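re: ur question from the group chat, yeah i did fold both. here u go
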Amino acid sequence: MAYVFGAVFPCDPGSPLIGSWRQQIHNLFGTFEYLGGGFRLLLFDRIPSARMVVPLKISGVLVLLGLVLLTIPSLAGYRYAPFKPRH
């Protein structure tokens, strides 16, 4: 659902934390996506393959860390990098 809402409500130029109402909806569903994905990876320890538990937990921590890093104002330049074709 977050991908659909992210596409229907694209981010403003520069992807600010505080922006238009479309940006706020984009940020809300993006937050749900990061939180849901990160916590789900942390809860994958219930799977039968014990070899995958540690990599999945590390992935979950990295996703949640990514969410936190997205909120730091000094890193705003990394949130949105428009595509620039090479000539």
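okk and heres the other one u asked abt
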Amino acid sequence: MVTEERVRDQLRTVVDPELGMDLVELGLIYGVGVRDEGRHVDVTFSLTSPMCPVGDQLQAQVEAEALTVEGVETVNVQLTFDPMWSPEMMSPAAKLFFGR
């Protein structure tokens, strides 16, 4: 069965190349929604900066990884800057890693 947790676990494979950490730990995955008995997934995510040079690449990777979850047929990935990402959004482990 497709769950939000399963999708988030899969999204841990998407790594921000500048920071070397996955988008989930960085707090860049704002939301994951599962609909239509798991066949459709909506992912809302952000970037550390609106000027991030790899934003398109990360968006494509988020979509591709969500599609690898068994049962998922379609994915809608939405980039947002509302709210703007800040280091306070990182997981405790990421904060520790970056000395915050």
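fwiw on the second one: The CA atoms of residues 13 and 35 lie 22 Å apart. The chain has a mean pLDDT of 96. idk if thats what u expected
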